[in-house]
Fold these 4 entries.
Entry 1:
Amino acid sequence: MYVAVMGYGTVGSGVAALLRKNHELIRKKSRQESLELRYILDLRTFPGDENESLVTNDFNLILNDSEVRIVVETMGGLHPAFEFVSACLAAGKSVVTSNKELVAAKGMELLRIAAENNANFMFEASVGGGIPVLTPIIQCLAANEISEVAGILNGTTNYILTKMFDEGAGFESALAEAQRLGYAERDPSADVDGIDACRKICILADLCFGREVAPDSFYVEGIRNITETDVEYAKALGGVIKLVASAEKKNGGENVAVCVSPAFIRNGSQLANVSDVFNAVLVRGDAVGDTVFYGRGAGKMPTASAVMADVIDCAVSMGETKPYGWSEAPDGYVLPDDEFTSRFFVRAACGADKVKEVFGSVQQVSFEGAPQGETAFVTELTDKASLKKSLADLGEIRSVIRVTDY
Amino acid sequence: MYVAVMGYGTVGSGVAALLRKNHELIRKKSRQESLELRYILDLRTFPGDENESLVTNDFNLILNDSEVRIVVETMGGLHPAFEFVSACLAAGKSVVTSNKELVAAKGMELLRIAAENNANFMFEASVGGGIPVLTPIIQCLAANEISEVAGILNGTTNYILTKMFDEGAGFESALAEAQRLGYAERDPSADVDGIDACRKICILADLCFGREVAPDSFYVEGIRNITETDVEYAKALGGVIKLVASAEKKNGGENVAVCVSPAFIRNGSQLANVSDVFNAVLVRGDAVGDTVFYGRGAGKMPTASAVMADVIDCAVSMGETKPYGWSEAPDGYVLPDDEFTSRFFVRAACGADKVKEVFGSVQQVSFEGAPQGETAFVTELTDKASLKKSLADLGEIRSVIRVTDY
């Protein structure tokens, strides 16, 4: 059996390297007499690369080679990835991708094309890098009604927040360090503004609850506004601030509340100890309770590990489409932001009396050296519409950060 | 399709309850028109129980009913579980078990019988309760050479150690509390002496490395000897003491070093934050790096969650045996204890000079109120044979606890 890789960047070259390194093990587990890389699609050339001879810029070579039964898509972006992947699936080839943008936007459609052509479309690597999470959710937690899925899904922002917590760095300097180390792009917005985490929580919600969640249908906030002062307050509260992406079933499954935003997590939670570029995903099931999957959420070899697991799965399942149970959602499935319910940490430029007048007796937070002229506190459980109304009565608001119960 | 449950104790009744609660979801994911519980094998009767009418004490009823395609074994113990399970497999029925004693001792043999009869033998629930761990290892990390697997695999001892750390309780009073809450048996030895963790690390090693590790072939030490003083030293060292079961490939896979013993874990490790009855398993792969699976390692519904996932898998895979790659090991595969290598925390009734004379400049540990007349320190990496020799020169030894690098 032959495999093609489309896109010879970090992940694509990792896939080729891993197939070479653990070739015998991978071939055996694929239950194939041979499993070889035949083409690498890329517009660039790679003189001197060990796979130089496999590189082509002609997609049709892959599409029309009937011996290529599995295609790995690691190009990234929506176009031409979507066109290439749909063409491969329509030709009955199975496709494995690490491209979260593609899966979040077009996953349901590509799964349909795969099913119509007796092929598989698999994307374990699109969420949590090397961490096994999608297969465990679909297969190992299959007997559970899942009520919530949440996670630290972006390594770049987690690295930055870890720096801010451990070294007291400000956002800008932590970002600069992340860029220097190659953890953040020169244009870091996809990471720091929460776009990457947004795509991943969509995929998780799609699979956990079986209904499509569109990436533009809920509130997404990145970490640009988190300050050193917020960090100090979080420490005083006994926890950390993480960029948390979450999706929770509401109204018996009729709705889902989805959110990407900075969030307070108490120390002692399995998610609080997730540092640097590591990721973790928490899944809450009615039988299993809380279970957490932790590991490297990005990087060449960890991501290749997840891609190759799917390649093996495709090889073993050849000719039989695995059902993902991901279907269209009715209008209004995703709750509007105003109805999002949580406890919130708030810093307001007013006195404690004013806070008590508006919010009643709430938990106040302080630390030595806290800014003068403000009151910091944690609200009771409230929806955002009510919160906004109450905050309008307090005057200048310096921070609003949700407080999780994980 | 019909299912039978053998053993209507905690786990067996959980399986029946979960099948009832999430019946439609489980049936759909099993891709069956019907999926019903037909028999419950137990010597006891259960007057008034919702499944009373299904209870039988006649194993042959199950064995000879050709419509029963999947049998769940939740009886525990080796006999008659082994005889019943082999008979079911020999009859072409798939078997799912939560019985770690059975799997650790007879897993390879039962997998062989399953394969010969085109059936499946599955045992996700035998390690880590509800936590998805065996399937992720086999399937999601399939492209990795796994070098090490380690974990906190016993909830009872972890509850006791958490009590000792958080509340300063002694071992005996923490054990009594665990017994009062039903976390520990009246005879707690299987848990506190490490026997349960021993069986589980065998199963993990069998699957991670593909070669059989016998439960009596390596060093197993429980937590009875951990004192309040050890706890204080661990805190001073910046970590916790957990009952850690681990298996590490040595000499390029020719050998494996396996151990169950109390171990020091630094704060900040994903394993340090695993509290109370929770479990966690760390798997170290060459591509994925470290990945950790966390959740409820025991209990009625979490364990039922893992059992039912296997039942669904058996239903979907009917007629096709899943390979586990678990084969016999050559003699001498498991390293003798003398060759086990680690850093060790030691408390010796001697002065610091004597320690320096024997061990060179090692890291010393102390805390306010530490016992007089002893020196506590952490050795460099050493094998146990050398350690024993050096310790003999120090005089009375009060504690030896290995120090992990997870």
Note: Chain A touches chain B through 53 residues (CB under 8 Å).
Entry 2:
Amino acid sequence: MMTRKEIAINKLKSLGETIIEDVSQNKVPAVRVPSRGTSNIVYDENRRHYVLGDRYGQRSLGNVKQIKKIGQMVYMANFCKQLVEREKTATLRELYYVSEGWEVEFGTQDESNIVGEDLEVTLGMTREDLGLMPEEDGASVYGDLTIKEDDLEINALRSGKSGYTISPTINEVEFVDHNVQRVIAVETMGMFHRMVQESAYKKFDTLIVGLKGQAARATRRFLKRVNDELGLPVYICNDGDPWGFHIAQVIISGSAKLAHVNHDLATPDAKFLGVTASDIIKYDLPTDPLKDIDVLRLKELLKDPRYRYETWKMEIKKMLKIGKKAEQQSFSKYGLEYVVDTYFPEKLEQME
Amino acid sequence: MMTRKEIAINKLKSLGETIIEDVSQNKVPAVRVPSRGTSNIVYDENRRHYVLGDRYGQRSLGNVKQIKKIGQMVYMANFCKQLVEREKTATLRELYYVSEGWEVEFGTQDESNIVGEDLEVTLGMTREDLGLMPEEDGASVYGDLTIKEDDLEINALRSGKSGYTISPTINEVEFVDHNVQRVIAVETMGMFHRMVQESAYKKFDTLIVGLKGQAARATRRFLKRVNDELGLPVYICNDGDPWGFHIAQVIISGSAKLAHVNHDLATPDAKFLGVTASDIIKYDLPTDPLKDIDVLRLKELLKDPRYRYETWKMEIKKMLKIGKKAEQQSFSKYGLEYVVDTYFPEKLEQME
């Protein structure tokens, strides 16, 4: 089996070879770039995440307007090939500055980011596979999982109270060993530290993942990998509001914007554990009233194919009805330990 | 010598004892709270950071308006005492929800945050010493430093590519061993990963600290401790713009808002390594023009006592003159390795 590195190099090479072949056959070189316009983003019922449809655009050197775009793409592909071969990575920001030395220039970083996406979508690989990294690290992980980065083995129970940080290069990490039954991802680092402090990792034989709000790509990739490769069920516990719902949903069903790489990022079997509108009622949580923007967002979610399951619809409608939202830390009303001693055990029993 | 924990418990107890003593002597109980109004925040030339002046406010139970504030403060102090005794921590958010069960209520979290600051300033300790933690973790650290959290030894060279994460409980961490000559803190995680990848920790015998923008309190405490306790010089490399300057300056001289705890957070001997206006010129870096808000901010800095040294004034004036700013990642114009192979060695030689 080819490694992801070999696949990346092959795909990058073949992009160039296609162009050379066209030239040697006296054809006008062109590159087929899958369209990522809204009309080509479809929710795939079988895969349970957004994918790209089969519409393509043609970038041709015969079209004056497209010559620069192709030039930029080829330069970038060449740079990525060097990165992958040398086992290096660069941030999108670094790439933008590196391109100052190229014969095709980018006006702004937005322009180079878009060409980066073109490359992702054309090759069907994440830009991380091509050596292009986001600035930010992923989530924090705490619990008995041993991973390997190059020659270094790291146990996420022995990395400190803030856990092991998922790096953008998570694809190259090897899972060596683990002694957990499940994964619980939580939205805030406040809740992460609570769970570490209350020994939730022991009580529930679980990995604890601190998402830090909207999950980074590296975090989504990590959750998918532990689910796929280690067969661990993934539960997500966020604030009980439309934003918390959607942070979970993007982990589960992917985002429309990244339809072309959701096959690497979405974890359709991950489950939203809470905080639900039902939890708000059952546990009589301290709440805030829904703001107009919350109501608007909840109504949008009702129309979103990712929320088509009855349980989601019911919870969204219930939240609209009670007109209230609650944060995951609001369980502390009953004492700091309550969320780990009472809420999680009750919810996990319901779900497993 | 008393541990910080013992000091915290003593101070919390004596707050209550003062009140009880007043009552038993038939006096109206009152608490002296140092004023943190702007007129009481002064730059201390000897300590080289902001401190609070000697103005106090009196919170008296004889004043109807102040009864609730004192009640909240005593409840919070009691909660903190329990936290410290039980070796637990809580986020400010959790504290706010816990207070729902108290007989004195907080209208909003802003209100409970302010009482938390009152407690800090009255006792002269950081709220972290009192068990109250911020939500967010601190910086990432990479390099040959071994620390001890409870019984667990962790080496920051063996915590993964994203390094060891400074947790809000950094005060309880013990420095066990190290094999470095200095500390280089950088503003972005992009630069952090670049330095890890180019083995900067070996080349410069350095710890690498990824600040992630404005340094968290835990990060500032960490930098102060490695400077004080291990005698390591601290260098800060940020973007070459007023915001990068100020991220460095807050590490060096503390912030006005935290004048009451700067003695625990400021590292007056830390040095700003770059990116300076002189660097922009010398290295012919890719730049962006200063925006109006940048110019405004630079002019503010010129009036700030923390920037009174000639080198700072000269660099600020030079930046205003060239009208340009540059990001730290812009060195990639000369290739990804340039910043580590050329820029850092040249700057460190100048400064050491």
Note: The mean pLDDT of chain A is 94.
Entry 3:
Amino acid sequence: MTEARVMLPPGSVIGILGGGQLARMLSVAASRLGYRTHVFDPAPAPPAGDVCFRVTTAEWDDLSALERFAGSVAVITFEFENIPPDTLAFLAARDAVRPCVRALQVSQDRLDEKAFLRDLGLVTAPFLPVNGPSDLAEALNGIKAPAILKTRRLGYDGKGQVRLAEGDDPRAACAAIGNAPAILEGFVDFSHEVSVIAARGLDGAVAAFDPGQNLHEGGILRQTTVPAQLSAPQRSDAVLIAARILNALDYVGVLGVELFVTPQGLVVNEIAPRVHNSGHWTQAGCAVDQFEQHIRAIAGLPLGDGNRHVDVEMENLIGGDIARLPEVLGERGTSVHLYGKAEVRPGRKMGHVNRIRPAR
Amino acid sequence: MTEARVMLPPGSVIGILGGGQLARMLSVAASRLGYRTHVFDPAPAPPAGDVCFRVTTAEWDDLSALERFAGSVAVITFEFENIPPDTLAFLAARDAVRPCVRALQVSQDRLDEKAFLRDLGLVTAPFLPVNGPSDLAEALNGIKAPAILKTRRLGYDGKGQVRLAEGDDPRAACAAIGNAPAILEGFVDFSHEVSVIAARGLDGAVAAFDPGQNLHEGGILRQTTVPAQLSAPQRSDAVLIAARILNALDYVGVLGVELFVTPQGLVVNEIAPRVHNSGHWTQAGCAVDQFEQHIRAIAGLPLGDGNRHVDVEMENLIGGDIARLPEVLGERGTSVHLYGKAEVRPGRKMGHVNRIRPAR
């Protein structure tokens, strides 16, 4: 078992599990700090492959490929939370995995995540476990419809979820999510959603970016705006919530926390143990962005200055939005980030733009 | 001969001659626009190799490697001006080479460059060609010592140059530069040096970044600060000079122009037909930096918004400066860019930092 040294020397190779756009931008950030990246992804020609030092194309259960990958890197991180547990255990026995295996375990299971947050004294939507139609019928006595039934594991961007209106058939609802182990969540009456992107260094130092305000469409993030509409106490609450989560997990790296803003205070929606789409604005608004902050943390470097010096609006380019590219390229104050995806599909994140305005 | 299409489609491969730090940062910028890069460099493991799609390690006269390289890319650009003319001619017969072969020719020869600038009506230091000691003796009648004798070709960062004081032996001076064809330049009495980084699109549109003020040490750029100390007329003169050069060359891409500021006006020191060290500050100060501006131009995209929204000081990390890295990483408002060079050598550019301050 090779524990990475406290401060990764320049030239070291950082392993990244998953080769999508987040890995692509992590890889670029790593290069700014003099590191190389080795990306592991089952899909050929992943977006990160254009800007990384090395790519391994292999399945998550290909132990000899995993062994070679682990042997070629100084530390391992990931760009998404749904890495198969066996893969993770295999790698964690060989290299330092950062943020940490525990963070992945918590965020891979919606029930565990909610329980973890509640045990930390944080407020979440009301929730109950559901293991079949009879469970669901009973849960609907406590959490009144309208409510939402979600699979415990996997699922993102609105997949693996079904909304329940009053009188809906529990059997049909469970069937709609494949009768998978699930969680029933009550709705939260919120005015808007914000997210905090926060980081914790190997030395335990914590830093948070200014919270951003999120706008979703069809379950997919459409836009993040900074500054968010938050009072000063709300803003500091948001940061304290993120810090509490980071410390509880003994976390190393960047974490995204989605929060609902309600008259009664902030409600934690979910956490992502990785760089997060709602933190892409930091590329345009800060000396050190979320990608570099993550690399700094997992490499044992001091966290960088994430203070925001301009207002930013981040807009995702989703599916056919990419047709607007020529127009977007000519806009004032706009930086474009494309992910190198050849095929345009509805709902697929093709890129994003950051629009800056002088800070108010 | 394959002429690149007017607007390079995303996913296209851009060829870059030279794989140093400029190619490294060009490659990252290309990825933001959805392009891949193929780097050609005789040296193994070039800095750009960490973040490019493909690397060819071959000599400049390896025609079969050049042929394969040319066949794999949609357009060719370069990160340095001293590409052997035969290499360039071979490639230009196969692909679009941008900025343009003419710009390289002009900047490869100090005498041609000065003559080109003078013919454009621009002011340069006084200069005369020198082809040996007797030429030099005669030239020193017109351009009085102190003066500087420079080889016409090659040489950078203070190499291939010798200073002449009054009474110095012409024979010794010529010997000091290997008796190469040379140019004698008079000194210019200037208060400070600025540079303009300007771009010209495939459509002929011209845009310039705010001029930066340069500080050299031992012939190597140490620091660039924006805004530069310039009056409004000087600032507009600087931009007009760059535009005149770009248009005269029918240039496509980013060009650096170094200017001496004198009480009588701006004097052109030299031009660089590529992204330039004195433009690195744009990474921190603009929505679109010089690297992306160059990629946009050569890819036929509209030029981006290079307006400066913060004040920036760029400092090069040269040789042993890299030992200050731990301290620099912790500085407020600072972004670090390392070039992934394993070996530290005196005078070697290892990286740079951009320090931002709110715009005045």
Note: Chain B touches chain A through 50 residues (CB under 8 Å).
Entry 4:
Amino acid sequence: METIENNYKERDYEVHIRFPEFTCLCPKTGQPDFAEITIRYTPDARLVELKSLKMYLNAYRNEGIFHEEAVNRILEDFVAAVTPKQVEITGTFNVRGGIYTTVTASYPP
Amino acid sequence: METIENNYKERDYEVHIRFPEFTCLCPKTGQPDFAEITIRYTPDARLVELKSLKMYLNAYRNEGIFHEEAVNRILEDFVAAVTPKQVEITGTFNVRGGIYTTVTASYPP
Amino acid sequence: METIENNYKERDYEVHIRFPEFTCLCPKTGQPDFAEITIRYTPDARLVELKSLKMYLNAYRNEGIFHEEAVNRILEDFVAAVTPKQVEITGTFNVRGGIYTTVTASYPP
Amino acid sequence: METIENNYKERDYEVHIRFPEFTCLCPKTGQPDFAEITIRYTPDARLVELKSLKMYLNAYRNEGIFHEEAVNRILEDFVAAVTPKQVEITGTFNVRGGIYTTVTASYPP
Amino acid sequence: METIENNYKERDYEVHIRFPEFTCLCPKTGQPDFAEITIRYTPDARLVELKSLKMYLNAYRNEGIFHEEAVNRILEDFVAAVTPKQVEITGTFNVRGGIYTTVTASYPP
Amino acid sequence: METIENNYKERDYEVHIRFPEFTCLCPKTGQPDFAEITIRYTPDARLVELKSLKMYLNAYRNEGIFHEEAVNRILEDFVAAVTPKQVEITGTFNVRGGIYTTVTASYPP
Amino acid sequence: METIENNYKERDYEVHIRFPEFTCLCPKTGQPDFAEITIRYTPDARLVELKSLKMYLNAYRNEGIFHEEAVNRILEDFVAAVTPKQVEITGTFNVRGGIYTTVTASYPP
Amino acid sequence: METIENNYKERDYEVHIRFPEFTCLCPKTGQPDFAEITIRYTPDARLVELKSLKMYLNAYRNEGIFHEEAVNRILEDFVAAVTPKQVEITGTFNVRGGIYTTVTASYPP
Amino acid sequence: METIENNYKERDYEVHIRFPEFTCLCPKTGQPDFAEITIRYTPDARLVELKSLKMYLNAYRNEGIFHEEAVNRILEDFVAAVTPKQVEITGTFNVRGGIYTTVTASYPP
Amino acid sequence: METIENNYKERDYEVHIRFPEFTCLCPKTGQPDFAEITIRYTPDARLVELKSLKMYLNAYRNEGIFHEEAVNRILEDFVAAVTPKQVEITGTFNVRGGIYTTVTASYPP
């Protein structure tokens, strides 16, 4: 994830990003999982660069990872790269076994 | 209901589960009832394992139980098995006699 | 309106009832009025029995009553019969003369 | 049902009427039934007068009648009163016992 | 209604116009009526000029006219002014007395 | 605007009125404007009589008035006629020049 | 499935029945399957009695059966019991393994 | 507009393209117009290359052109470049002066 | 793709399959593409086995292929494996460069 | 951006403006970007004049500017021209590279 300068860092404003094309693998079965990832953050000195964010999210494509793990790891990587004033990440996963799961984590606690 | 370890228990995050395929029997008439069950919880040390949750909910299939009773019993079983920081359970039942009923219970009070 | 015992009265939980088939008469013209009645309540010792609730609401069918009057009277009858911890009643009436009216009343004040 | 003159009877055009407030009684249980009635017709010499149509449909309010019977009887009364070039009547009834029923009949055969 | 030249009259193509802001008066009560007018036509040598069409439709604002009459008269005026290869006019009127009415007429028969 | 007695004035309840058929004229161009007016109020001793409210709103039909002016004037007239405990008026105007405008004003400040 | 007399058998009209609460078991895994069954038929001498139809469909609740098998068997049983002029049965099954399946069969061929 | 080879030209199949970001200028006022362009075609020996199609459509951005003209010109350019077996082009334009316009043209006639 | 026996092959009925989780790679950029694949077929002697169909579609995950190519190849593989009486395949692809593409092919021609 | 007098400045009321036709250029690629801009403000002594607002927003048409930059600059220009009591500006941008971005900024901080 790369960043670009935020020219309005003295103002608290919100950027909301929606990425409906997240896919990874189920670590148990190896079968594909699909989710929409949303990122809502208040930038500090840096903005996330959108193309690098897309590349970062696409890198999960062939990785086995649980739903809760994926959302928490994206949160930690985003905080490390962008150091926002605050951020909330949500993963809305496609139905599996009749169950729809959504995971939401935020920073700071 | 089985559980798996929560690797991010120091962080308060939310898991939202939606199960549209809940069915039980009306204790008066023996006829089928249908509902969508949603579970929204903040995990502590354990996460609910989704396949075992599905099995648990499917076990109501041939049991006679009232709407209010079903939601409260699922809440108590979930708290006993997963010991979340907090949890809210909702049952949205199909129309019966022209009436739509939704029951919502949460823990801690 | 009859009631049944609430086995979970020590817990504050919510029951939401939606009845789209309410009809009464306009006291001025005698013409039919139609509404959806919703009841959202936190039960105390008693739950409303759904079939008797339906019978109670159907009894307005041939009665002339204004919108505001209907919702307030249902509220008073519900409180008298069920003595909930709290309750909110809404009547969403069909369009008349190009105007859509919704009335909402709750207890305790 | 009363009628008014159709000033454009030499032209085949269509009038579509939707009445979402039809209610009658179930002939078995005496409980209320609800439906949306739609009438799509090509007028000949006469148009149906809308207020008298509403009065006609409201007259079913306290009458016990089956779904299929209601739609066919409305069709026959409409044909007798308006003598349209053609007409199709549909009744879309509210759910009863988990079943939604729609009945459609038309004239001429 | 004014017209402009159709540069593609040798090709049969379709223009669909939707005007949700039609209003006139009920000839019985003097109260306002509202409708969405749609015009679907295949132009011949001329296209309708849109601003003049709007002016034409706005001219009904304080005129008393029945639903069926309005749609048929718009059809006749449109055919006289634009002489299309074919045209269909629909008026979808707002609910009055619980009844929704739509009228559709077309040319040539 | 006329009023009728509120039989439940000791209880704070809400009446929500929606009127999708508001029309006036643009004071600059004389062209028609259209809006949906909503009124949400908590009655004190009086309720607004719905037919007179409709007549009041219809009286704007041929009057030139700006969007912000219309909503504020309706608010002042409503407060003067009904003296509610509180009221909020919203006008949602149709698109003009690619811009959709909504104005919301309330009493007491 | 029981039937009642069709008083309008000389007229070809259509009855459309929708039953969103069909459930059976997967013959491979024993896990529950869910579907919405729709039946669209033109009655001959007999109409299906709705309560008995519901009982018939509920009888699949604990039976293992494939999607294609279920729809074809319901079709054959319906034809045998009701002998309609024509009938079309559709089963719209809930997602399994990321796949949504709908099966439609009709009589006569 | 560039093209690429169609490897399945012996089979009649359909490609449907939707481009919601078309914009041009009104030739009268110079103000921007907006539309969604859809292209539905059966390819012969060539397929349209999507990036060049986008460039072609973007080239209208600062050009003054009427609605009917734009759709017919896109049709002619598409036929010239791609020589499809058949093609239908639709332009759904944003509201102007309260009027929504859609133009549809196809080839061969 | 494996198949199972069709017990009702003498009857022409339709099976409609929807798979919203198709993903492949763009052969130019290597970036992921996403689509919903639908298959509508009339079975002859064999039905497609759903789990093997899912495995077949998932095998495109890391393969570079154009939209038109993907749909035509799935059609050919389906016909070879299932030999249906008829089949239609549609791929509805996610937006790329502001353009939404849908491809539909069927057999027999 | 021009302004007109606010006749009700002593009252805190809200004006909500929605402009779905904002377009600018990507400063990296020169390709068009599209967004819906919403402005929600509480006027002080002045109201924004809508036609001049439209002209102001249309002036971005051929300017290269990033999403975050555009929303913040519109905010600053609006505050400078209208000096509202408060204002919130949102830009909802069309998908680019599979990512949907929304930016929201407000004044005072």
Note: The longest strand of chain E covers residues 14-25.
